[in-house]
Amino acid sequence: MAGLATSLGAGAASNSLEQIKDADVLFIFGSNTTEGHPIVSLHVNAAIRNGARIIIGDPRRIDLVKFSDVWLNLRPGSNIALLHGLIHIILRDGLQNDEFIKNRTEGFDELREAVKKYTPQYTQQITGVSVDKLEKAARLYAKAKNAMILYGLGVTEHHTGTENVMAIANLAFTCGHIGRPSTGIMALRGQNNVQGASDMGPAPNVYTGYQYVSKPEVREKFERAWDVKLPTIAGLKSVEMFDRAIEGTFKGLFTMGADTAHTDPNINHIWKAFDALEFFVVCDIFHTHTTRFADVILPGASFAEKDGTFTNGERRVQRVRKAIEPLAGMAEWQVLQELSKRMGFEMNYTHPSEIMDEIASLTPNYGGISYERIEKQGIQWPCPTKDHPGTTTLYELQFNRPSGKALFVAVEHAGSGELPNTEYPYVLITGRRLQHYNNGSMTRRVRGIMELSPEETIEINHADATRLNIAHGEKVRVSSRRGEIYVKAEVTQRSQAGNVFLAFHFEDALTNILTSGVRDPIAGTPEYKACAVRIDKL
Amino acid sequence: MTTAIAQDTITLTINGKTVTAASGKTILQVCRDSGIYVPTLCYDERLEAYGGCRLCLVEVKGQGRPLSSCTTPIREGMEVTTDSDRITRLRKTVLELLLSNHPNDCMLCEKAGACTLQELVYMYGVRYDNYYGEMWNLPKKDDNPFISYDPNKCVLCGRCVNICQNVVMKGTIDMTGRGFYSKPDTAFGKPLTPDICVFCGQCVSACPVGALTEKQARGKGRVGSVERVRTTCTYCGTGCNFYLNVNKGKIVKVTSDYAAPVNKGNLCVKGRFGYDFIQHPDRITKPLIRREGVTDTSPEVLKDPMAVFREAEWDEALDLVASKFMELKNKYGPDSVGGFSSSRCTNEENYLFAKWVRVALNTNNVDNCARV
Amino acid sequence: MSRQISISVCMGTGGLAAGAREVMEMFSVELASAGVETTLHAQKHCDLHRVGCRGFCARDVLVDVSIDGTKTTYEQVTLDRVARIVNEHVVGGQPVEEFAAGVDYHNFEDKQLKVVLSECGLIDPEDIEAYIKVGGYEAAKKVLATLSPQDTIDTIKLSGLRGRGGAGFPTGLKWEFGSKEQASQKYLICNADEGDPGAFMDRSVVEGNPHVVIEGMIIAAYAIGTTKGYVYIRAEYPLAVQRLELALKHARQKGFLGDNIFGRGVKFDIKVKLGAGAFVCGEETALIASIEGNRGMPRSKPPFPAQKGLFGKPTIINNVETLANVTYIIRRGAEWFASLGTEKSKGTKVFALTGKIKNSGLIEVPMGIPLRKVIYGIGGGIEKDRRFKAVQTGGPSGGCIPESLLDTHLDYESLASVGSIMGSGGMVVLDEGDCMVNIAKYFLEFTQAESCGKCTPCRVGTKRLLEILTRITEGKGKANDLVTLEALARDVIDSSLCGLGQTAPNPILSTLKYFRDEYDAHIIDKRCPAGVCKALLTYTIKEDACTGCTMCARVCPVKAITGEKKKTHYIDHGLCIKCNSCYDVCKFNAVDKR
Predict the structure, then answer these.
(1) Least C-beta-crowded within 10 Å: which of A128, A147, A296, C40?
(2) Number of domains chain B contains
(3) Per residue in C21-69, pLDDT tens?
(4) Min distance B68 CA to chain A CA atoms (Å)
(5) Which residues of C touch B68 (CB under 8 A)?
(6) Does domain A2-188 have CATH number 1.20.1050.10?
(7) Which of A310, A327, A451 shows the shortest C-beta gap to B347?
(8) Domain limits for position B137
């Protein structure tokens, strides 16, 4: 999200899902939409049926490839080279939108210099994508009346994740495919309330609505509202908390609803950190790899047991409604309130709607939102006032940067943080499967889902399987510099030769033992999408 | 501006009433927009009009034959009649023909109360024995975890097939057979398996009768006995809405919210069928405190958590948490403690969590898993 | 200068089935041994060639031998007759009178008016040069060289041509709709999915003269403004498909199809799509669905294919006979065409004449000719000189026309006025031995099985209609069945989605109209007047006629017949299964069924 924030001024999807069906060209990048976001993929299907041309950027032959006009089968970690290669072709052929570039952007000259070296041949060398495909994709995207980019975690979960996003933004700006319906950049968010959680400011440097802790007038507003003196400097990012725990300077942590000990990369490091904590409180609905480190486990309430709101990937704030009583008697908002009281800070909300009213009063983007207004349809922020209808398309008139203009950022190809070598010759890409969700604590407890998808398997190309003499369904050892797991092999054409694929939904096949601790230095996002592994026949 | 509107709108009369509507709409859409009831079985707003059930027939002046209103675009000056003796007779005949090959066991049917056929038969007052002859006696198919298919109840509206082919674009099912023996099925009647089916249950959501139903929900409560709570899905960031169906405090089913802004009643396997976890016996329902002297944090803990933790009342647990954080804050300073929240929690909880860290712990050491 | 000798062998499907290939080879052998030089296709002094269907398939193999323009037609030529024809006629110059076609052939041939079939049976369908020689592709050349698309449409409009697929929609008007649509792509489809049981009109045209259809398509494509055409033809027509593919190949080689037709910069080509034999795929929108690769199911009109057809683009669909007519209209003029037929139905119509008729086969007659002339003139009357009962026109969805209406004219309006339809040209003659309830049941059996299942009235309605008819023929009919039958038939017509359901009950309504007494006999008297409905029959042996030959007792499979030699036999009705064996075997007409 930091990438979009730098380039556009806000870390959120620029357009609405409903607009996907009317796009002429869809560039789907690093998103296996069919499995990761099945309902978004239905919008993509509608576009296909309306005649949209489809460009896929993905190392795997995902389902959507069969409906695509071009499949850019790039090597993991070569996103920037690919995008700048496309921009190179567009500029070479004069297909850029000069008017948009002139009136609505800054930094174009630097970008023009930066993409000079990404000739089609050079780009092919880095990405493995043929010149023909690059030429075709560049022309399709540039010549479209309305082209939209959908990107997923295949873009952000790299150590150059932020820069990858900036490169995507560069492409959209070059052709002026933003600021109108059915154009723009749609980030497909992983978890249900990623957007909302980001908006709500449980973050070391910002309060709600990305208001900086460091700005005195902002801080004073919150101090007045909360009737307390607030710390002036930014806090620690989660990774920093974990590192300091191991160092011994960070002592107590409260985790609410996250299974970090399962889902973070290089989890051995996380386990060490949790072990080192003096006091660790975990709030969850099930026992997880994280709860086993806890000193106190507080029972959480599932989404069916409480009122509240989620904000989806298109910035739509929608209601969550209580269908049954909390199994443990209290929902998290009540638990936090009780805890706060015990620590001397009164909170007296009688219903989550009152919390939303407080959020609205402190957060310009959410200013017009109330339970009453979102009862039927939900509202897409920015919605600054009670009579504002919400915003389906961002940046129609200006971008959210101080100059009002979008910024080209001249990023450079840097590759993955960990590259394969003779000892660890395969690139492991991790991701999700249709039937499961995240750490699997919920979906593994759905009987029918376990009938359909009972265990983890590693996707391996036919050619590699033949070389390793591994048969379909055979159990293999997968190891990286950090550890090993045992899973069955799924011999397939889906993963290209040299790449293997694992999801991370199972407790007994902890994929994140393998993944590397390399992170995007800007956003702190781990590089889930590429680490070096070896596969051994047992 | 006014001329532009004039070009795009069409004036017609429906049942003698003048109606103005945007060109490109069908007679049925205009009727619905104007609050004129026209019965349908095969119409689904998510799908291209099918025109198969023939219940939406209307008379258009100048056309000898009644037209299906769902497929007929409006034209300037059209004179439409949605209800006449002839139309009513034809609708009754269609319903009687459907009933002549239908089990008519509404009392046992999962869909009773929410069944369009049942409703129409009631409204038009038709009987099931006006036509008689061969009736299907086909085996029910539910050799998969989620979808139960009783072809004998199928009215061949084609919605399941159309949604699978044209919305999901999976093509798991299609119409098979010919004539009286046509029915939706998989190729060669194979059972639904992950190879051919994504188990999104769109077919179930499209079925207007009791032919396709949620297998897990069978016998657990029909529309009359459940409370339906509209909410937002907890899986992934798309933001689909649906109804949780609650019967006596138990979540028994998820059903589509066709008015949902993002998903229009469409759902995926997780959203539609992934609710078992909510009231799963594994749920932690009481606060747990680590037993004195037990230090094990290994994966073994998951095998028997109660060997490591003991149950406690809320007061005890909350007092302990509060006092422990106060103690650490006082001893090591506010920056030695912090909080980590999750994208799975609501906005209100995330807000409150951040507020709690900033207010009660007095630190900005708060983060969330959005970057992960 | 030697004499010009031409020998043409009918090698349509009928001819081939009768052994035309072998006959052809035998001619080759005999001609060689008689010392007559022959070369296929070469314009030497003796030309032996294949031709398409001649229509009178009952008398195949038909062979024409013509010497210096004097033609003799031989019928039912078998291998053993070839030598005499070669020796006596080809070499000796004396036609072999005893093998020559007789009066039936001439009745059949001479009373027709052949336009669409005019070159079928004359030219070699596998030789594009043969077609060019008779003026082929001149019409298309003329259109592209001298007429604008609108002129072309106007010409067809002026001719009064109406669609020969069944509905009779004016072809010129249809083209005009197509030409006015603005779209990135339009399509032309030739519907050769002849699905009516017993119909082989389009098949014979494609087999006998494929180029005339291709030429018609070029003209149509130019008029509409499309570059892509399809011929949708059933896979069950292998010879037609093969000859069509060959003709397309030759036309491409000649530059009559492709990117620059006749060098005039016009682009058009044709793909062949095979249908899998679903009757409903003859319906335009189902046909489109089938070409698109979907299940052949129709959709509601409007929007019509001319607006939204194949792949959502404007599409004009014409049937084979319509397109063949187009070629001749351009070749011989709209006025000429308009001079044929009646005021509203112009030109000729091809029919497949079958049933209880003496001369059955493919015929072409001017529109407006009275039915009687067809049946008693061309058809030569009823087989075995039995009594005519009805003629069923229009295929399985047509109606039955009784004797009292035999002077009805064969045109769209007249047929509709008596409750039948032109259809694509099926004509089945029924005699006194046909039970009209059973006939209605027969056609319903076909249409209900061919229903695609999409709409309720057709899927369930035709099934229930059939069941009521079945009950009547089984003697289980009830007094109010006819009321139900008629009401349901009308509702199915009114509410069905496509032409199949909208016409399927026609045989019921027309038989109810003209032969209600037969229904009543089945229901009230439990009797089948024609002696067809087994369940209603009782077999008895007439004492006065039985000679006691014992044949009936011997053939009876259930030993229901007893009797001593030379004494009257008896049938035990409790055992009799009504298999009709005794009736068939009795030489003395002593078995009575009623």
Answers:
(1) C40
(2) 4
(3) 999 998 888 888 887 766 544 444 678 888 888 888 888 889 999 888 8
(4) 24
(5) 300, 497
(6) no
(7) A310
(8) 106-279
